[in-house]
Amino acid sequence: MYIPMIFFTITIERRKVTPEQKWARYQQEQAIAQWEDQKHQIYTQFPEYCIR
């Protein structure tokens, strides 16, 4: 029995990032970095309460 081969192509388009989206992502990364820094500061002040 003959099984026909089906050829197809997948095209992936790059998502266009607007300057507003770039700025929002930058602000999000900065907020996460600030939150991590605050978490680290709390850990250094009270290490006995942060141990799991």
Automatic annotation (TrEMBL):
One Pfam family hit: Bac_small_YrzI
Name by which UniProt lists this protein: YrzI family small protein
Biological source species: Brevibacillus panacihumi W25
